[in-house]
Amino acid sequence: MFASKAGKQSLDCIVCSVEVLGMPSKWHNTIGPHIHSTPHWLSANGVIPRLDSQPMICKALLALALVSVSTAKIYFREDFLDADWSKRWVQSQHSGKELADFKWTAGKFFGNEEKDKGLQTSTDARFYAISAKFEDNAYTNDGKDLVIQFTVKHEQNIDCGGGYLKVFDCSLDQTSLHGESPYLIMFGPDICGPGTKKVHVIFNYKGKNLLTTKDIRCKDDVFTHIYRLVVKPDNTYKVLIDGEVVEKGELEKDWAFLEPKKIKDPEAKKPEDWDDRAKIDDESDTKPDDWEQPEYIADPDATKPEDWDDEMDGEWEPPQINNPAFKGEWKPKQIDNPAYKGPWV
Question: Where is the composition biased (Acidic residues) (predicted)?
Answer without folding.
Answer: 307-316
